[in-house]
Amino acid sequence: GGTALRALLRALLRAANALLQQRRYRAALAVLKGFRNGAVYGAKIRAPHALVMTFLFKSGSLREKLKSIAQATYTHSRNLAYFVFTYKGLMALQSRLQGKKIPFHSFFAACIGGWLVFGENNPINSQIIMYLLSRILFGLSRLAVEKGYIPQPKQDPFPLVAALVWGTVLWLFEYHRQTLQPSLQSSMTYLYDDSNVWHDISDFLIYNKRTDGK
Q: Which residues form the signal peptide (predicted)?
């Protein structure tokens, strides 16, 4: 009955906890937990972002919007889980084969994971790659200063970087809009184009665009 089932569940829980303490399985278990953490983190990151962006900029029925949010969340969660699984698995394999961990292992494992998991050119992957690219550029710049490849700036270069980034992106938006990602185009259209159009107080302060067909 219920007592026997509870006893069985307790025994299974004790066995699982004992297995998790075994050092010989630590690398394999770390790969599995990496898969779990990738899936959870991907969902946590994508769900609120997809919710906001979908209701702000996408048209369609509520059902279609919810389906879009679920699909984006699933794709991000799945890809991040697969990537962490692949990366940690290849890291463990290389370390086992060579007997130690070296920096190239990380680069090689991540390259393979990136190719296999994020190689498809779709909106979710593109956004993730662009997110990482911006941080890579900052990181490599800091590393170049730390290693002495470029001199330490006498003043904080961030204001100049901010000026060049905004100058470039607005130039692209105004004159070469098709080169920008659709989500960025949507955001900038709302900010810079839609603010040029109004008919009365309703679509000047309350709404962005009139929907009554007038």
A: 1-18
| Beta carbons of 109 and 86 less than 8 angstroms apart | yes
Task: Give CA–CA dist 51/127, Å, rounded.
Answer: 16
pLDDT over 70, % of the chain: 98
Closest CA to 91 of 74, 103, 79: 103
pTM over 0.85: no
Interval 149-175: pLDDT, tens: 999 999 999 999 999 999 999 999 999
Cβ(180)–Cβ(173) below 8 Å: yes
User: Domain ranges in the chain?
Assistant: 13-119, 120-152, 157-203
Extended beta strands in the chain, E state: none
- How far CA 212 is from CA of 61, 199, 202, 203, 207, in Å, comes to 18, 12, 11, 11, 11
**DSSP assignment, residue 152?**
P
- Summarize the confidence of residues 58-77 as an average pLDDT: 93
For tokens 């839609």, the residue is 194
Q: In terms of residues, how long is the chain?
A: 214
